[in-house]
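User: My instructor asked us to take a sequence, write out its structure as tokens, and then describe one feature of it. I'm not sure where to start. Here is the sequence I was given:
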Amino acid sequence: MSAERRSRGQRRRDTEHRLTHDVDVWVASASPDGAPHLVPLSFDWDGEALLLATSAGSPTGRNLADTRTARLALGPTRDVAMIEGEVEVLKIDALPQQRGDRFAARTGFDPRTLDTPYRWFRITPRRIQAWREENELRDRELMRGGRWLV
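Assistant: Let's start with the prediction itself. The structure tokens for your sequence are:
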């Protein structure tokens, strides 16, 4: 049984709510030679980009730094928002303290305190799709080229 079809406007509001309130996101990346990697990471949304942190030497850290692109998934499979974005890589001490403190408070994790070298990864959405069921597949694209369509 399918849930009632939401308007694209409602899907945008639901996606923005999830970006504001969820704490974890699935991060899909690939190495330059195409080897895929998928991990959950905590994030903070500032209204323009998602801020994540991971070890600079991890597969995800290397992939994001090398390719500067990622695909993210928020929510369960029957209420998903798929985000494709451009990645900016920042040294762990490059953010203003207030921004790092906000990340730590929101996620319960402060990579600035670790001995392992971590980096910040700022992911700016370029394409966002959102759907629950088959009845929302049409018009699932909410953002294209970094601009909201609704």
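For the description part of your assignment, you could build on this observation: The mean pLDDT is 96. Try explaining in your own words what that tells you about the chain.
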